[in-house]
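Protocol step 4 of 6: structure prediction from sequence.
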Amino acid sequence: MDLTGLGSIADLAKGIMDRFIPPKATEAERAAIQVELQRMLDSRETAILDVQKSVMVAEMNQEDKFTKRARPMVVYAGLMFIFLVHVLFPILVWLGNETVPSLVLPDYFWQVWGGVCAVWIVGRSAEKLRIGGSAVGVITGRK
């Protein structure tokens, strides 16, 4: 199993090399070209990761606090939808002496909302127990 991704870069470099290097090239020439291709592909991957990292850092350093509070907002909005569908609307229908329409939150709502709540609760619990780390920082939006 290639966890670093370097094996896939090496395979890509070898595939490119097999297409564009003449078959009559010596093994030394092929090895030198393969090393250069791997270096170029490594630098490309590093540049992509640096850009992704800088975007995430910029998002976390911005002054808009809502971006950092987005997960709690999803939790609170989900609670509001649950309250509306399962408490307020049935009470209003009961007060109006009408038949209750079938209101059901979709399965995708429960899956996504439950996943967001689970991640947020685990992150906040770890933060309150002073179990630090980058994963907790990503979950809670803290630096």
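Step 5 (inspection) to follow. The mean pLDDT is 77.
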